[in-house]
Design goal:
Blueprint lengths: L17 H8 L2 H4 L5 E4 L4 E2 L6 E6 L7 E6 L5 E7 L12 E6 L7 E7 L4 E2 L3 E3 L7 H12 L3 E2 L4 E2 L6 E3 L23 E2 H17 L21 H15 L8 E4 L27 E4 L18 H20 L4 H20 L21 H15 L2 H14 L21 H6 L5 H22 L14 H19 L5 H11 L26 H6 L12 E2 H6 L18 E2 L14 H17 L4
Parallel strand pairs: 2-9, 12-15
Antiparallel strand pairs: 1-3, 3-6, 4-5, 4-7, 7-8, 7-9, 10-11, 13-14, 14-15, 16-17
Helix pairs in contact: 3-16, 4-5, 4-6, 4-16, 6-7, 6-8, 7-8, 8-9, 11-12, 12-13, 12-16
Bound molecules: calcium ion (3 copies).
Length: 611
């Protein structure tokens, strides 16, 4: 969840000068808008077989514009010049956009894209089968610095007194050991809602790409190999915490701490937030009652726990299979499977959604879908147990989950349709007859088609709404398009997925990759919102921002930027993005959004890249 209140207080001294600084520091290009001409490409690059479309945009019509590719080192032209074609339409504040298609260029190398004779050039990028080489391994270090308990990035232990219970079957404030897991975003809360999905995305990514992961770190995230793929070490950190959140066969806790956390930037091991037991002391752990909760001014509208329970079951079943088969650890595997079965049964008893629990502010994770999660859980449990009840359930929940999604919608509440794509349909697919398989692929196709229709309306081919965490939607859309292709052999949505991938990696109005530090030599977020990057000054490599947001939504939150906006020429009345530590709406990396990208980062590297 967002570090909602910390954003308003940092660096008071900077706030005195913004007008002067803004004028002084705006790039010269902003001061001559009439002649403004820009080009954007994916900063990481393209596989040889990818559709490859860069974007040029301009304040004025450029009917004679041409473009070419140059060798990044020598500057020699290697392809083109080629006509840019007609104006692809307005976007944001620029009325002219040109789609620069160089799909037929496949020769591996490092290149830039130049607007011929205009003195405008893209950042360098790779074309080649290794363009995505090992990016996912670098991204895993992001999760190290999110770890609660022992944090290997800081080499410090935090929140060792978590927690004391609320709403639980035991008396209020009973001590329960729920240390571990991951902080949720730039703050120090921990949610089963997002962490369960994060562990699930890691296990899914592993299972789809067995044998393709490095071992450079141990279980604690220290740089010593331990014989276990690092993606499984990371997942295990979350799994162990999830087991603690399920301390008895019929009990489930879902959240540690609440928005009282938002007292400003603080290192996790020096947590000044006070939950009634003094600063840097015990924090509250919430039981999943499936009913409205809130200890302060605000309450949620929870109706059940099946969203959390279904995912919990899916994750534990996947873990059981991997620990048994790949790590030869049947004892741990049995523990995972037992936990999964128990929590799944709790989900059957309490259909509906457990939302995040607010306290002082109304903001919360507002998930309303649960059939998707129960479908996923039932499908995974069936794979391990072959008990018919699970398959019957999975089919029933699949029909219920259907096409319910943000895909194709203009807007949605915060995490309303979570996770942002339903893995349940994909996991159920191999378990059912051909007719039901057609139904499942039809669900995916109808969602993707709705997105494609919307995407065709703008030059970037972006069909998702710019609600809060738009990058999470983008990441999920790519996953779904690739999985649909796996299921059907139908690649009609691949190019849409690539356009979205390219947006995330810098082919957007601001020209900023949405991943901190990826690529290493690119233009990436320098001032992400979060305590650790702010207080240590260190790069939290791999973190995916929450991303661009509708300007109207941004204004509602009345955020204060802490410095001049270096991307001011690219903000518009439609959508904004700020590389500013004060902007927790667009520039705060998130645990689960980052996890969602792991699957396709590996896919572009180890599957499509090696074809
Ligand atoms: Ca390892
Ligand atoms: Ca859901
Ligand atoms: Ca900045």
């Amino acid at each position: 969840m967002k570090n909602v209140r910390s954003a308003v207080l940092p660096i008071a001294g900077w706030l005195i000068l913004p007008a002067i600084l803004l004028l002084a520091s705006l790039p010269a290009r902003a001061l001559s808008q009439q002649n403004a001409l820009f080009v954007r490409a994916n900063q990481v690059g393209y596989l040889p077989g990818d559709s490859k479309v860069a974007i040029a945009f301009s304040a004025t019509a450029r009917p004679d514009l041409r473009f070419e590719l140059a060798d990044a080192r020598s500057g020699d032209r290697v392809w083109g010049p080629q006509s840019t074609g007609p104006n692809a339409g307005a976007y944001g504040r620029y009325p002219y956009h040109y789609r620069l298609d160089f799909t037929d260029f496949t020769k591996p190398g490092r290149y830039t894209l130049r607007l011929t004779g205009a003195g405008v050039e893209s950042l360098p990028f790779t074309v080649g089968p290794d363009a995505y080489h090992d990016l996912h391994e670098r991204m895993l270090t992001y999760f190290h610095q999110q770890r609660c308990g022992y944090n290997p990035f800081l080499d410090e232990a935090c929140h060792r007194l978590d927690g004391r219970t609320a709403y639980g079957p035991l008396p209020d404030s009973t001590y329960l050991d729920v240390s571990g897991g991951w902080h949720d975003a730039g703050d120090d809360l921990r949610y089963l809602l997002t962490s369960g999905n994060t562990a699930g995305r890691m296990l899914f990514t592993y299972r789809e790409n067995r044998g393709k992961f490095h071992d450079r770190y141990n279980a604690l995230g220290q740089p010593h190999p331990n014989g276990i793929p690092d993606i499984l070490d990371e997942a295990k950190w979350g799994l162990d915490w999830m087991l603690k959140m399920h301390p008895a066969p019929d009990q489930l806790y879902h959240q540690v701490a609440d928005d009282r956390d938002h007292t400003g930037f603080k290192l996790p091991y020096q947590d000044t937030a006070d939950y009634g037991w003094g600063p840097n002391s015990y924090r509250v752990v919430y039981y999943a009652t499936g009913k409205p909760q809130g200890l302060g001014k605000y309450r949620n509208t929870s109706t059940g726990i099946a969203n959390l329970a279904g995912r919990y079951a899916a994750v534990m079943a996947m873990a059981a299979e991997i620990w048994e088969q790949d790590l030869d650890d049947p004892i741990t595997a049995a523990r995972f499977l037992q936990a999964g079965k128990e929590v799944y049964a709790m989900g059957l008893q309490q259909p509906g959604c457990q939302e995040g629990t607010p306290c002082l502010a109304p903001y919360r994770y507002h998930e309303i879908t649960w059939a998707d999660d129960m479908e996923w859980g039932a499908a995974e449990l069936y794979k391990l147990t072959r008990q018919d009840d699970y398959l019957t359930d999975a089919r029933r929940f699949a029909t219920l989950a259907n096409t319910v999604s943000w895909m194709g919608a203009d807007t949605a509440r915060h995490y309303e349709y979570y996770p942002f794509m339903n893995l349940g349909h994909y996991e159920l697919f191999p378990l059912v007859d051909a007719a039901f398989q057609d139904t499942l692929t039809g669900y995916y196709r109808s969602q993707l088609e709705a997105l494609r229709q919307r995407a065709l309306r703008n030059p970037y081919r972006i069909g998702y709404p710019f609600i809060w965490c738009s990058n999470n939607l983008a990441a999920a859309l790519i996953t779904q398009a690739l999985l649909y292709e796996n299921m059907t052999g139908d690649d009609r949505y691949r190019s849409m997925a690539l356009e979205v991938r390219d947006w995330l990696l810098g082919r957007n109005p601001w020209g900023v990759s949405q991943f901190v530090g990826i690529p290493a030599d690119g233009v990436t977020p320098q001032d992400p919102h979060g305590s650790i990057p702010y207080l240590t000054g260190r790069e939290i490599t791999g973190g995916l921002n929450d991303g661009p947001i509708y300007t109207s939504t941004y204004r509602q939150h009345r955020l204060e930027l802490t410095g001049p906006d270096e991307y001011a020429p690219f903000q518009s009345s439609l959508v904004v993005f700020h590389d500013d530590i004060g902007d927790y709406a667009t520039n705060e990396p998130t645990l689960d959004g980052t996890a969602e990208t792991l699957f396709w980062m590996v896919y572009f590297d180890r599957v499509l890249g090696k074809k």
